[in-house]
Task: structure prediction
Amino acid sequence: MSDEKTRPRAQDTGRAPLRSVSRRGSKMRRRLSGLLALGVALVAVGGLYTVFTPEPDQAIAADPAIVREGQQIYDNSCITCHGSNLQGVGGRGPSLVGVGEASVYYQVSTGRMPLAAQGAAAERKPPRYDERQIDALGAFIQANGGGPVLPAERGEALRGEELGRGGELFRLNCASCHNFTGRGGALSQGKFAPNLDPANESQIYAAMLSGPANMPTFADSQLSPEEKRDIIGYIKSVSSNNTGANPGGNGLGGFGPVPEGIVAFFVGLAALIGISLWIGSRQ
Result:
């Protein structure tokens, strides 16, 4: 009886190994399924990151030497006012983080930067750097601070063809400061809106993206790239440099109805005085 109690039964010795093997197999399947799910999740996250992350500037990614050249220009001419990390220096210059290459192109290509002297508004002057140096400086600012970038097109390629729509958009968004034909005008506190005749197409586009001085910024959600091009096309069509836009006669500076009204006022006043004198002489 004691031997039969202590001796394991045949059916028990046969089932125990089968249960342990099945448990190990189920654990292995769970681990494999978990690793597979993790792999699928990682691939999905990587795909979403690739789709929704904006592509870096190709010129910056392709040629880091341009960024290094821009850093040398920055260290020589800009670091005193804008800081070693683009953070700005109080009382000297604002932060450049987020301004992008668009702002750099506008400010430097128009000669407003480097700033000659502090004032209510920076005036246009001959630029200190050539186009390559300006692009290099913009590449450095873009690589370290980010912000709006200019389109690849330059010159007349930025002019839209819908001049009627461009004129309407210009009158709605720009004429209150720049006048109806882009000749500029005085603002409050000694500031002024500049004449747009000397500005090239890229400078006008960059100004709409960066909003220099008192000018508001116009993101693509406010003015689409096509609408910006139409505005540029309209500005160039009424520019004093466009000889084909002048129908003849004296343009009176292209300021619109104001100088024309002044001329009409003085001509009419002189005519009234002459008529009054003539009537008095007859009496």
Observations:
- The first strand starts at residue 185 and ends at 186.
